[in-house]
Amino acid sequence: MNKCVFLDRDGVLNEDRSDYVYRVEDMVIPAGVAEGLRLLKEAGYLLIVVTNQAGIAKGLYTRDDVMRCHNYLQDCCGNLIDDIYYSPHHPDYTSRSLTRKPDSLMLEKAIAKYNIDVAHSWIFGDALRDMQAGKRVGVRTIYINHRIPNQPAVADKHATDLLEASKLVLEQ
Ligand SMILES: [Mg+2]
């Protein structure tokens, strides 16, 4: 079986914005992200992005925009990410989908496809719904937040950025 770190995208791999990130020029990758991913990869973790992209349902941008941003992210991080799952749904615009976090179908699909051992896997996220999706499938959770000390109690660990979170995983 394989171990994996699931990665929320906006606010974890790239800086979030008050509106949606869908232009490559708005993809700002903080210092330390590439190094953190490299440390996890060297330790044998699969790196799989699981991201809500409801802007697709809202008609604000397209699947092609999501993939352009993902390709840019891969260019910046040495192609270390193994796969990306995104949920294009929003219950106000499309039918409700179990892929949208806090539901966990994106993670469940990856767990089945990549034969992932949840007991040795993690999720990094900057929202309560990321932690909830992780709990649903039984991975450990790290809540990343560099601004607000308002950290959800449901997270197993807390970190200020992806690099710090990666080092917490490697300490285990
Ligand atoms: Mg986020």
UniProtKB/TrEMBL annotation:
Any one GO MF term held by the record is: metal ion binding
Q: What class of enzyme is it?
A: hydrolase
Keywords, in A-Z order: Carbohydrate metabolism, Cytoplasm, Hydrolase, Magnesium, Metal-binding, Zinc
Residues engaged in binding Mg(2+): 8, 10, 126
Q: What is its main location?
A: cytoplasm
Q: Where is this site: Contributes to substrate recognition?
A: 100
| Residues annotated as the enzyme's active site | 8, 10
Q: Which cofactor does it need?
A: Zn(2+); Mg(2+)
Q: Is-annotated flag, keyword Metal-binding?
A: yes
Localisation:
Cytoplasm
Q: What EC designation does it have? A: 3.1.3.-
Show which residues form the site (Stabilizes the phosphoryl group): 51, 101
Sites where the protein binds Zn(2+): 89
One GO BP annotation is: carbohydrate metabolic process
* Family from the record: Belongs to the gmhB family.
Q: What is this protein called?
A: D,D-heptose 1,7-bisphosphate phosphatase
